Amino acid sequence: MTTTTGGTPAEPQPLLEAEDLTVDLLSGTPGAPRSRRVVRGVSFTLHEGETLALIGESGSGKSLSAMALMGLLPATTAEVGGSVRHRGTDLLALHPDALRARRGKHIAMIFQDALSALNPTLTVGFQIAEVIRAHEQVGRREARARAVELMARVRIPDPARRYRDYPHQFSGGMRQRIMIASALALSPDVLIADEPTTALDVTVQAQIMELLAELRESTGSALLLITHDLGLAATAADRVAIMYAGHIVEQAPVEDLYDRPAHPYTEGLLAALPRLEGPPDDLTPIPGTPPAPGPLPPGCSFRPRCPAARDSCATRQPALLPAPPARLVACHYPLEASSAR
Fold this sequence. Notes:
By secondary structure, the chain is of the alpha/beta class. Among the domains are: about 50-70 and about 95-105 and about 190-275 and about 310-340, 3-Layer(aba) Sandwich (Rossmann fold), CATH 3.40.50; about 115-185, no CATH class. Helices cover about 30% and strands about 25% of the residues. The strands form two sheets. An eight-stranded mixed beta sheet has the order 6-7-8-3-9-10-12-11, with helices on both faces. It starts with 15 loop residues before the first strand and ends with a helix.
């Protein structure tokens, strides 16, 4: 724990910190360019050994935020603003070569669709080994041995033999394990997992999340979990950030957020979750639809769907501000929203 000069405990420095992150998607022609803002001032911190779940509907901007963090959005189609600091270094200000050197070695990503992310013409072992050789001066034999060790670490049966297999020869869950092994190849201290259990059955989902939790604990790395699954986040995360229309609207420790949501959107998401107790059709959907990417009308972006909206909500976009207990919320009336639950 870091301390101030007076001996008072101070907040440890985050491993990863995003501040006012924006993403504009570019289109049109050079003479008549057009842009649509899809990520609007996202800010969060991620500390050593912590899992932060970034939750949102499709189109909320969560996956684009992850791609922007990694510097994977082409400059010809997207413009990224704000800052993303890893151990104090602003990744968005780095030269592409410097960013490429840091990516994989210090911060790595597990993609949503392992079959698309893996090269179908190369064996999985070769692909893991090449990650190592791209960043370290090691020979093929050593890289192969380390790749086999990584495959064993993520519980691929008979890894020495399966090193020579191709992605299509693995099940969906095993391909996701290969992706995790590749992400861990250089022992990064930050892992970004973008919907890592999509299209997997419930049992395999649980195995993948258990594996990620074990690896996080054994390495001390931090995990940014991108998901739309509230149930998954409840079991895996320490803190949760809720995204809506490109904004983070609430951020809190996982138990506080699920027990006492302060934003009407969070409350609506939790009310729409199926529960074991009660009638199977006892769900309360959120009325309306999320706004389309691009310019938003004045005021709170959730106002057209919010049951607690007032006249002031139509004129001012609420800022993400501290609210008890130990949370941030972007709502003009968060305590009323919380007490209305």
